[in-house]
Automatic annotation (TrEMBL):
Pfam families: FTSW_RODA_SPOVE (PF01098). This is Probable peptidoglycan glycosyltransferase FtsW. It is a multi-pass membrane protein. It comes from the Bacteria. The lineage of its organism: Bacteria, Pseudomonadati, Pseudomonadota, Alphaproteobacteria, Rhodospirillales. It is found in: Cell membrane. Belongs to the SEDS family. FtsW subfamily. It comes from Azospirillum oleiclasticum. The gene is ftsW.
Amino acid sequence: MITFDRTDQSVFGRWWWTVDRWQLVALAILMAMGTVLITAASPPVAERIGIDDTFYFVERHLLMLVPASIIMMSVSLLSPRGVARTAVVVYLVALALVAATLVVGVEIKGARRWIHIPGLSLQPSEFVKPAFAVVAAWLFSLSRTTPGFPGSFVSMVLYGGTVGLLLMQPDLGMAFVLSAVWFTQFFLAGLNVLLVVALGVLGVAGLVMAYFTFPHVTSRIDRFLDPQAGDTYQVSRSLEAFANGGLMGTGPGQGTVKFSLPDAHADFIFAVAGEELGLVACLLIVITFGFIVLRGFARVFNENNYFVILATAGLLVQFGLQSMINMGSSLHLMPTKGMTLPFISYGGSSLLALGFGMGMVLALTRKRFGPGD
C-alpha cells in the first residue's frame, strides 16, 4: 500500500493529505457496484442484439473505466485556477463538437447527439455539462471580483447558446440538467431576486413549450400521467423487477426481468439492482450518492473562494440531479429520460465526463492553505 508522510511536499504527497479520501472511497464503491451490476445485466442485452461475445458490454465498460479513473485522479491534482482553465478549454471544444453533431452527427432514435470516432461513439454534450458548470461559476465570480466585468451577462449568453444547441439535437434532458445547474448558481451568486424569479418563470414556460413542441416529450409525459396513453413496457418491467427483488433480492445474476428489459445495462440498471440485490442494496446506493453530494457541500461550507463555492455547487447539483432522474425514472416517479446512473450505468462518454466532473469536485474540495494550493 502506498503511503505518504505528512511532511512530503511532492505533488502526490500534498494531494494525499489534502484530498477528501472519504469521497474517493464512496466513488470507488459506485465504480465497483457498477462493474458488478453491468456484469449481471449486460450479457442478456448482448445476446438479444446479436453480439457473439456475451461479455462485450462488460469489457467495454472496464475499458472505459480505466481512463475515466485516470482522468478523475489527474484532474483532482489541479488547483482551482487550473480547474477553471481546463474547464474553459473542454467547454469550447465540447461545444464545437455539439455544433458539429448537427451536421456530421449520427442520428439515433430521431436525435443527433453522437459523433462516431473509430472505436468510440462520442456524445460531446456529456462533457459540456461539467465544463459549463465551472465556466459559469468562473464568470459569476469575476462579476464580483472584477468591477465592470459583465460576467453575469456573458454567462447568460453562453447559457442561452448552449441550451439552444442542445435543443436543436434535440436533447431536452441534458438542457434541463444544465438549466437546473445554471439557475442554482445564478441564485447562489446573490443576483437580483426579481431576475431570478423571472428566469424561473421562463424556465417553467420553456418546459410547457417543450411539451407542445417535441413529440417525444409529449409522449413521455402523457405515458407518465396516464399509462394507458402509450407503450410503458420498460417502466412496467422495471417495477416488476423491484417487486421481484423484495428486501434482499434474488441474488447476483439470478434476476429474470433483465432478459426482457432492453436498456437493463444502461437507463434501467437500477431496476437490475432492485431485483438481484434488493431494497437494502438500493438504499445503500442512494445513501452513497447522497453522501458524495452532502460531503462535497460540507467541504466548501466555510470556503472563502467565491469561484470554488459556485463551481462545486454546480457540479454536485448536476451529479445529484442526474442520479435522481435515473433512479426516479426506474421507479416511475417521473417521466422516463435516457440518462445514465453515474459510474454504475454502461456508457463511454458519460463515464469519461463523470470522471472529469468528479475530478474537478475532488480538486475544488481539497484542503487549501494558500492561494496557490
